[in-house]
Amino acid sequence: MTETQILNYALNQFAGIDAAAFELSAPYWQRKTYGKGEFYNEYKNVCKYLGFILDGVFRTYYIDDESAEEKNVFFFSKNQVVVAYKSFVTQTPCSYYTESMTESTILYIHINHLTELYGKSHHWERFGRLVAETAFNLAMNRAEEFMFRTPEQRYLELIQNHPDIFNNVPLYHIASYLGIQAPSLSRIRKRMVGK
Amino acid sequence: MTETQILNYALNQFAGIDAAAFELSAPYWQRKTYGKGEFYNEYKNVCKYLGFILDGVFRTYYIDDESAEEKNVFFFSKNQVVVAYKSFVTQTPCSYYTESMTESTILYIHINHLTELYGKSHHWERFGRLVAETAFNLAMNRAEEFMFRTPEQRYLELIQNHPDIFNNVPLYHIASYLGIQAPSLSRIRKRMVGK
DNA sequence: CTATATTCTTAACCCAAGTTAAGATCGTCA
DNA sequence: TGACGATCTTAACTTGGGTTAAGAATATAG
């Protein structure tokens, strides 16, 4: 399967984009590869592209003014959309960095082209709405994790629900994602051995 | 100003709904009042209505299985939309309770009518998108509060940004919203006296 | 204006995460 | 293989929230 076919298939799964609707978009998608540590989008930049990950893992993180620590907010991996959603839809500067954690390949489309597609086909409008709902779900799930669960519960749920991330990311990045320091994660892991 | 005019004005401010577009919706809006403690929507119910608050304050809360405690997730007040967003857009059962904390009055519209309006006017499509973005911002802000701020910082920001809520809600509800117990909020307040 | 319920604060004790620094383990590549 | 850097764990101590229960302050109603 070619990369374009993979994209076509994924968009069909995600939003029912059919062959004709996909054809409309075909001229607009571009391909890009990232080395480990390269940025998809940086703090204070406006996010102008929506990406589809063919391979690799990205993380978006915040830098805390006071502690100067990086705090991981989201991970994005294979066959997912990667975008700084708020910055993208409002075309305002981003509060985060989004960095490739591995060698990665994406296909991406410019916001102007996407907006153009919204006008041309209801399939693409539907796509836009579904991206919005996905972004909402990501943010709400994250809020719920922190409001309702302990760090230990968050750790267990990450292993359950996102083994792909757990298995491909160093523990200190996991700790940051869980909202705790590396030594605390070590203690949690130690505590759990007895269970 | 009549209640309908207030709604018209608010929708115009929020999403540029003009007189003609508002006319389309006029037959669909209904009025409802709530006593203190009455529910806008309950756990396991599908949220079928989107409300606009003319007066009053609502809270949506989660009941933790283990501790059986209520955890406040959002407050909604005058001139805001009240809705259980995820339940509303997916028409699936809600995880939360949304309760009126005061005597309240809302105007509300059924999802089927709203969907109908989406098809009739780009103004209403725009409204749908803006509600989605508002819901995303609410959820993302909440996630950021918990990921990046201490309880004390969250308390200060609530006073700064939402004095209307702070001044009209008992402290034990504020504590729950901040993700801490009432005695902890008391300690924070005490600590801060010296500043 | 008192009685009552609600809300808020305080105290004492417990426990988990933060902090810092040291050392163990793992990977990788010359 | 051996040496370096990266990652992970551990220890000792500090800090702040959780828990429980008591009591103080505030509202509300009779």
From TrEMBL, chains A, B:
Database matches in InterPro entries: cNMP-bd_dom_sf, RmlC-like_jellyroll
SUPFAM superfamilies: cAMP-binding domain-like
Superkingdom of origin organism: Bacteria
Name the record gives this protein: CRP-like cAMP-binding protein
